[in-house]
């Protein structure tokens, strides 16, 4: 990639892979979607996402674009990186970064949580400023609040009892697909097919996050306490 700048993302998740899709910064990347796929987890249990295909796609007359979203533990922030054009990310350029309240999740934040700051040193200010819902789409395997716990989700779906000793019950959902349980550090503890009753008796006492993914790839997350 001869010139490096930012893109817009939209994410969707499935059993096969977790993806993020970005659409934005049209001055540099045109009005097109870039799809990121989770490739691995780093040493800090943070997911790493890379665009597919890794060797790039046409990008606004700038050659090809390869992008990566990953956690920078030294600077405690999520970063949106552009490759030098070889698909190796040996000397990538920083396009956006988000360092607001994101170190509790294994997934990067949405464009409504914290601030994805445009690195104008690389973009020349052509991306229209920090990411927002008016200049970009960023959807998929993201979180939108601390620990990914959404008050909107809570209004639609209930989990009880909380705190819980043995079994969590779920109400208000009829198209559940999978459930995942994460500890407060964002590490995945369990993945199971959806059930309205979840046996958590073997979990150690503490705080966890329950993620429910639907058959339409929506996700809802709840914090619960295991007694």
UniProtKB/TrEMBL annotation:
<keyword id="KW-0732">Signal</keyword>
<dbReference type="InterPro" id="IPR026444">
    <property type="entry name" value="Secre_tail"/>
</dbReference>
<feature type="domain" description="Secretion system C-terminal sorting">
    <location>
        <begin position="159"/>
        <end position="219"/>
    </location>
</feature>
<protein>
    <submittedName>
        <fullName>Por secretion system C-terminal sorting domain-containing protein</fullName>
    </submittedName>
</protein>
<feature type="signal peptide">
    <location>
        <begin position="1"/>
        <end position="16"/>
    </location>
</feature>
<dbReference type="Pfam" id="PF18962">
    <property type="entry name" value="Por_Secre_tail"/>
</dbReference>
């Amino acid at each position: 990639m001869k010139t490096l700048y930012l893109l817009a993302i939209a994410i969707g998740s499935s059993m096969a892979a977790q993806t993020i899709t970005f659409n934005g910064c049209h001055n540099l990347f045109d009005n097109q979607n870039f799809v990121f796929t989770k490739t691995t987890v780093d040493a800090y249990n943070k997911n790493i996402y890379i665009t597919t295909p890794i060797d790039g796609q046409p990008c606004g007359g700038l050659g090809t674009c390869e992008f990566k979203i990953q956690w920078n533990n030294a600077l405690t922030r999520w970063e949106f990186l552009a490759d030098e054009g070889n698909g190796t990310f040996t000397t990538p350029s920083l396009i956006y970064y988000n360092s607001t309240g994101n170190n509790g999740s294994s997934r990067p934040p949405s464009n409504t949580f914290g601030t994805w700051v445009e690195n104008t040193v690389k973009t020349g200010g052509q991306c229209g400023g920090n990411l927002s819902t008016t200049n970009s789409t960023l959807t998929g395997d993201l979180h939108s609040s601390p620990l990914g716990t959404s008050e909107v989700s809570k209004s639609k779906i209930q989990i009880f009892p909380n705190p819980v000793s043995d079994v969590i019950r779920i109400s208000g959902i009829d198209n559940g697909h999978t459930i995942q349980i994460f500890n407060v550090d964002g590490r995945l503890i369990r993945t199971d097919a959806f059930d309205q009753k979840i046996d958590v008796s073997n979990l150690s006492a503490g705080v966890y996050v329950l993620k429910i993914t639907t058959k339409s790839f929506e996700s809802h997350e709840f914090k619960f306490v295991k007694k």
